[in-house]
Amino acid sequence: MPHLPEYAEYDAQDLAALVRRNDVTPRELLAEAVARLERINPRVNAVVTPLYDFAEKEIERGLPDGFFSGVPFLLKDLVEELAGAPMQMGSRACRGYIPSRDSEMVARFRRSGVVIFGKTNTPEFGLTITTESELYGPCRNPWNLEHTTGGSSGGSAAAVAAGVVPVAAGNDGGGSIRIPASCCGVFGFKPSRARNPSGPSAAELWQGAAVSHVLTRTVRDSAAFLDVTAGPEPGSPYEIRPSERPFLEEVGCPPGRLRIAFTRKSPFGPLHPEVLQAVDDTVSLLSELGHEVDEVFPPIDLERLVRSFLVLVGAEVAADLDLIGYVRRQKVRSTEVEATTWALRMLGQSLRAADLAKARRDFGFVTRSMGRFHLEHDVLMTPTLAVPPWRLGELTPNTAERLLLRSIAILHATVFLKLPATTRRMVSEVFSRSPFTALANITGQPAMSVPLHWTEQGLPVGIQFIAPLGEEARLFRLAAQLEQARPWFDRRPPLAEGR
After folding, report:
1. pLDDT(495) > 80
2. Which of 160, 362, 380, 450 is 20 to 30 Å from 487 by CA-CA measure?
């Protein structure tokens, strides 16, 4: 593109500023983004539903005069509905579903002026930590095409990392923004519960565990997008304390001397040596920046928490599949979803009401424990993942495992939680890789993954920071300080440069 060959050197706010100054048009930005996607997507598989005609019509109709007017943008093909656009959620069960209205988040995105031109790859219903659905195939990491992008916002993370867009939408129910951000070397922020809307189709998602936001290359873009989407909506079951000032104004403000707790241990197995190095390097950096850093972890039984979280997921999957059957007027059959999804559905159907109530009580106990912990510590730091991005296929059930999962359909009670070694191994494979991210979903706290380390093989490793409920501003101030101390914006995979 002759007008903007340096497209990838701009973040979303830079591109919006070019449009406001008439240095470039939204149509020219769209053409550049589409050209990049057409070059990269056959290798990465980040976008599963191109919406080029929709984008052109939006520009022709006239974009809103919003903060991000004219900026190319991608939606994740999960949760956030765009009227008139297919939404398949990575599942054969949803083929043919076309929402008739925008979700509130999408409406707010559109009011900001972004140009939506595609929907990104996700695992089936966002249920796992790698983006490898049977429907769409694997999304490949731009840093190494044989490795995972993480999940479930893997397509969005890959598109941002590869330079297709400076920002893309995601949602996070157990780490689904932060895990792909870590795997792809971008910035991933999960806001506090109720900060962003979840309607009009739902009062809350996954009992409040899931929230929506974006993945970005700069901290300031993440803060600015939260400014344009945050706030209550009609029918919200509860509201969170409003921010004292725009989140964008927090970026660049000194965070002060923070009391930061951290851990080098996981109850699910040892951390990878490269991850330990990333933690230790970050501890040194934080100390150099003047923060008080202490190796201590909250008094939380993470293994018990994982079991309770699995109860929540099973119950929600069962309810989701029942809802899909109701909407399409035909029950979902086991052959229409992946074996793991069907197993989770059977788990959900076999649970008692008391099981979910007990899990919710466990979540409440953990939330209170974290509240007390933050009286002594301003921020909790952990590795986002216990390992660097793993090879594609490592979490895919083999033939024997798929048969075992299918057999759950004829078993009874909460058998999924009691099944023998094969199934327990599959569950532990997920949480041994991601032992810390679901904590912030359960408590509703804001959390972020910051790209602060790359392995000797050139794979990204993110560091997670968790703050008290409602303290997004604290995280944005800290993130901006880290971004200035260890810049990552110009660190891009060779694929992004056409090599």
Report:
1. yes
2. 380
Residues annotated catalytic, as ranges: 76, 152, 176
Q: How confident is the model at residue 5 (pLDDT cuts 50, 70, 90)?
A: confident
Q: What is the pTM of this model?
A: 0.96
The pLDDT tens digits for 293-335 are: 999 999 999 989 999 999 999 999 999 999 999 999 999 999 9
Q: Token pair of 24, please?
A: 């470039």
Distance CA(132)–CA(151), nearest Å, equals 9
Report pLDDT digits (tens) over 196-206.
999 999 999 99
